[in-house]
Amino acid sequence: VDDNMHLKGFLSLKKIIQSDPDTLLKDLYESEFVFSYVDEDREVVAAKVEKYDLVAIPVLNSQQQILGVVYHDDVIEVIRKEHTEDMEKFMGIVPGDEILNYNQTSVGGHFKKRVVWLAALAVLGLISGIIIHSFEEALTVLIILAMYIPMVADTGGNAGSQAATVVIRALALNQLAVTDWLKIVWKEARIAFLLALVLGVIAFGKVLWLSWNTVLPPEHNLYFLAFGISLALSLQVITSTVVGACLPLIVKKFGGDPAVAASPAITTTVDITGLLIYFGIAMVLFF
Question: How far, in Å, CA of 67 to CA of 37, rounded?
Answer without folding.
Answer: 9
